[in-house]
């Protein structure tokens, strides 16, 4: 599993791990029932504390992305299309909220921001 940790980021390391694994699950890179590296193995690979990896795995489990079977390891949970879609919507919503806040800080009106979003959507190929 390829996870890159940015030590100079303001985002905590465990959150970087969570986001990386979520992205791999949502993209299909990690399929259902795929076994994740053990906490110790991932900690050793990333050169971080096992407690940090454990915190990331606990977070992923609480959100339903992975399942931990004691004595066997952690596995990607059964793909729940609704959960994955909701997670993607939350991420888009957060990105849009940051963009709106940035526009307002730059002095843009709500109408200017809306016009810009509409324009970008019209020009989008997707």
From TrEMBL:
InterPro entries: Tscrpt_reg_HTH_GntR, WH-like_DNA-bd_sf, WH_DNA-bd_sf. GO terms for molecular function: DNA binding; DNA-binding transcription factor activity. Keywords: DNA-binding, Transcription, Transcription regulation. Residues 11-79 form the HTH gntR-type domain. SMART domains: HTH_GNTR. Signal peptide: none annotated. The keyword Nucleotide-binding does not apply. The keyword Transcription applies. Gene3D superfamilies: Winged helix-like DNA-binding domain superfamily/Winged helix DNA-binding domain. This is GntR family transcriptional regulator. It comes from Candidatus Fimiplasma intestinipullorum. The lineage of its organism: Bacteria, Bacillati, Bacillota, Clostridia, Eubacteriales.
């Amino acid at each position: 599993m390829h996870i890159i940790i940015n030590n100079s980021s303001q985002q905590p390391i465990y959150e970087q791990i969570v986001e990386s694994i979520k992205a791999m699950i949502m993209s299909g890179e990690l399929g259902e029932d795929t076994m994740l590296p053990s906490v110790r193995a991932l900690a050793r690979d990333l050169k971080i504390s096992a407690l940090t990896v454990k915190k990331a795995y606990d977070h992923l489990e609480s959100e339903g992305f992975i399942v931990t079977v004691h004595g066997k390891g952690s596995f990607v949970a059964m793909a729940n299309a609704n959960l994955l879609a909701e997670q993607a919507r939350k991420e888009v919503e957060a990105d849009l909220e940051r963009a709106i806040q940035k526009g307002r800080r730059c002095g843009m009106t709500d109408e200017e921001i809306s016009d810009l979003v509409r324009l970008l959507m019209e020009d989008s190929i997707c």
